[in-house]
Amino acid sequence: MSASPSRPPLWFWIGIGCVWVFALAFRFWGLERFNTLVFDEVYFAKFGHHYLTQTEFFDAHPPLGKYLIALGIALKGFNPWGFRWINALVGATIPLILAGMAYQLSKRPSYALIAAVLTSLDGLLLVESRYALLNVHILFFGLLAHWLVLIALNHKGHQRNGWLAAAGASFGATIAVKWNGLGFLLGLYLLWGGAKFCRSRFDDLKRQTRLLPIQRLSELTWLQLFGYLPAIALFTYSLLWIPHLAQNPDFNFWQVHKEIFSYHRYRVGGADVHPYCSAWYTWPLLLKPISYFYQLTRSPVEPLPVTGPPLPQAAANWIYSVYATGNPILWWACTIAILFLLAQGGQQIWHRLAPPIKDHQALSSLSEEQVWISCYVGVNYLANYLPWIGVSRCTFLYHYMPASMFSSLALAWLMNDWLYSPDRRLRAFTIILLLASVFSFIICLPLYLGLPLSPWQWQLLRGQWLG
Questions:
Q1: Alpha-carbon distance 333 to 286, whole Å?
Q2: In this predicted structure, what is the pLDDT of residue 190?
């Protein structure tokens, strides 16, 4: 499992190209087949159109996501293809960004490719990418910001500052989609604090001349991380508000933020306000998917009727149903993987900080790289997940998506380790897990893409497979 000393080999680029084609195909196939506004498209697609028609409106989120939807509408018209295709393109790019992060963390092409493959099999990411919603844009800009920071750590001086500036702009952009994009920035600050502490606390790290990518975070100065980078993020965030405020002059910059905060704090109800609200502790177990679309028909012949009175349940021969849900086997495996890495990283930190004990060497059997990558993945997972514990408003499964990207990195790291293990059973288990994730993806495709199902098939798939 040695790291690549140079650029990734040809097989890596071929694999990444195949992943991107796979992701594009499933996001763009039948993108316009439901000629109606699905779930929160009733807000976001209309808001995007309002920017083009100069219609005043109030929105409970920052404006960048709707700008991007408006761009799609401007190029392709106010129709399902027009307000969805930008999201499909952005969603297809996310596996590539996660692969870039994995490679910068480890310099291992196999780890990066596995991360891309697993992300392309994520059903929730697929569904969110096929509609005019906001969550794929949070992921795109937040993960891109982390990738740019990791690249910056490979450079010095002005080049490093240039990459950090790009990362700051990307952090500003993810917060300009939704405020929970701040979790990506929180993760970076926590990691920097940890790297600084370890470099100052432990003598063996002080003597190191060749640092791992994450360890090089300690080289960033207070000015770079708490002055330069957040200043660019704030400038980008503020700049992105200008078109919205010019079109909607009822509130200035400070007033609109007060209104947004008030909306989420006081005007959005609790767990009973929506049938698909779910508590934060249910997300890692995939206990409550979200129904985005449901239509009963007598025939699977398209175009699908989506207007008029609903067909009685007893008269339906076919059901078109779209569920925002993860790939079950992959989702549960990612949850187990992140818990394992959190426990592993926590154990190593405890052994570092605890008084010397006789079997210290046996307990510290992990490599320095394994410890640091476990910390990177675990800290970012917690930074994007734990803040939701204190949120009392109605929350949904898709709020878990930023954290889930890091659980995917956790599983990919373990699978890459097992793939190069001398133990044939671990190598076989890795292949079986990957094939099971592909099988699970295929089984759930009718609910991801809204393919026609008979009532008994729908009941079986929804009741037995999703729980």
A1: 11
A2: 92
Measured distance CA(421)–CA(99) in Å, rounded: 21
Helices (H), 107-156: 109-120, 123-129, 135-152
Q: How far apart are CA 72 and CA 87, in angstroms?
A: 9
| Per-residue pLDDT at 234 | 96
pLDDT at 41: 93
Element (H, E) at 444: helix 424-449
Hey, is 268 helix, strand or coil? coil
Secondary element (H or E) of residue 190: helix 182-201
What ranges in 354-423 are assigned the alpha helix state H? Answer: 360-363, 368-385, 401-419
CA 258 to centroid of chain Cα atoms: 27
Using omega within 30 degrees of 0 as the cis cutoff, is the peptide bond preceding 312 cis? no
Residue 464 Cα to chain centre, angstroms: 26
- Dihedral sign for Cα atoms in the order 370, 375, 377, 382: positive
pLDDT of residue 264: 81
**Maximum C-alpha span of the chain:** 75
* Cα 132 from Cα 154, distance rounded (Å): 36
> Residue 318 forms beta bridges with which residues?
297
Q: How far apart are CA 292 and CA 343, in angstroms?
A: 35
DSSP string, 12-70: HHHHHHHHHHHHHHHHHTTTTSS-S--TTHHHHHHHHHHHHHT-----SS-SHHHHHHH
DSSP 8-class letter at 134? S
- Sheet of 318-324: strand order equals 290-297, 318-324, 452-453
The answer to whether 113 touches 100, Cβ cutoff 8 Å, is no
For residues 283 and 286, what is the distance between their CA atoms, to the nearest angstrom? Answer: 5
What pLDDT is attached to residue 294?
87
Do residues 324 and 128 touch, judged by C-beta distance below 8 A? yes
Q: What is the pLDDT of residues 138-149, one digit of tens each?
A: 999 999 999 999
Low-confidence ranges of the chain (pLDDT < 50): 1-2, 4-5, 203-204, 206, 357-364, 467
pTM for the model: 0.90
CA geometry: angle 429, 431, 433, nearest 5 deg: 65
Helix H or strand E encompassing 83? helix 80-106
Give the chain's radius of gyration (CA, Å): 23
Contacts of 28 (CB under 8 A, 6+ apart): 85, 88
